[in-house]
UniProtKB/TrEMBL annotation:
One of its GO terms (biological process) is cysteine biosynthetic process from serine. Pfam families: PALP (PF00291). Its cofactor is pyridoxal 5'-phosphate. PROSITE patterns: CYS_SYNTHASE. SUPFAM superfamilies: Tryptophan synthase beta subunit-like PLP-dependent enzymes. Residues 7-292 form the Tryptophan synthase beta chain-like PALP domain. Keywords: Pyridoxal phosphate. This is Cysteine synthase A. InterPro entries: Cys_Synth/Cystath_Beta-Synth, P-phosphate_BS, TrpB-like_PALP, TrpB-like_PALP_sf. Belongs to the cysteine synthase/cystathionine beta-synthase family.
Amino acid sequence: MINDSVLDTIGRTPVVRLNRIRVDNGSEILLKLESRNPAGSVKDRTALSMVLEAERDGRLKPGGTIIESSSGNTGKGLALIGAARGYRVILVTDPKAPASMVEYVSAFGAELEIVKEPDETGYQRPRLNRVHELLAATPGAFWPNQYDNPANPKIHAEQTAYEILDDVGQFDALVAAVGTGGHISGLAETLKKKLPDMVTVGVDAKGSRAFGFPYETWLMRGLGIAWKPENLQTELVDRVHLVADHEGIAASRLLARREGLLVGESAGAAVFGALHHAHDNPGSRIVAVAPDDGGNYLGESYDDEWLRAHGLGDAVAALATTELLVAAAKDPAWPSMTLEQVSRLVTSG
Ligand SMILES: Cc1ncc(COP(=O)(O)O)c(C=O)c1O
């Protein structure tokens, strides 16, 4: 098959059964490898969907400029798409942006704007403020605004969900990490219509405010957010599972070492959530999503020295075998709960 452009290679990602990281109760965990998109993540689909929509409705004209706040995968996807379609791309990020990301997007010719002053919740809001300044100063600039752009969940409802149905058919639960809420909301929209009994589990970082929990800091990249994103359709999420840094990171490292799947921290978190769900639901067939490639975390959470420097060495070491990880997922510190239970817990303080 000859693709007319690299953009035609976005999507049609494989699903792989986990053979060792599993609960031995008749359940199975199937991992959808969004890491296999050309810029390495689920965000390639989102970025392309937002750009094509903006081209169609005239917000983005030939030779125009795309400006977005991203220190990760959306930036990588936009940088690739900008190169392939001839747009200038400016990414607003902060000093914590991984060097690998900066080098990656620079290779595609994207420009970086580094915001240096955080506010009380970190860099996310100051970065958005800078995006607005740049938009005002750049005629014809387009802001994809992935947190509140219907084209983000739409591509997953119209494309990714059907790939899962084609490859997997019937299944019992979807487990997906939540950042902007784009992929879980889009997938759930279609899959709940096609498989009415299927349960959706949103995996969030311990400390994230996506579902209203009190804010704390967390380390994992990709999932978690300091506010509730507009794209997150909470009514489509049946259960929420807060995953701690060491749980998600330990799972991602074992996916590499025991399954040969080099995936990111949020994939580890999703698999940890899937293991927890499998313990509670013997015999169930679970689809989890691996949002990005583990290459993003080399020299970081795949590196023992880095883990020690970030105070996670012992906690990750305590989950360093499949047996320990699977056992920890049976009764984690924050078991999954319904949204009703979440709101009761949050209101009772
Ligand atoms: C690595 C990673 N995991 C998870 C997510 C969350 O995906 P979504 O924004 O669709 O909720 C993202 C989004 O940026 C991501 O980059």
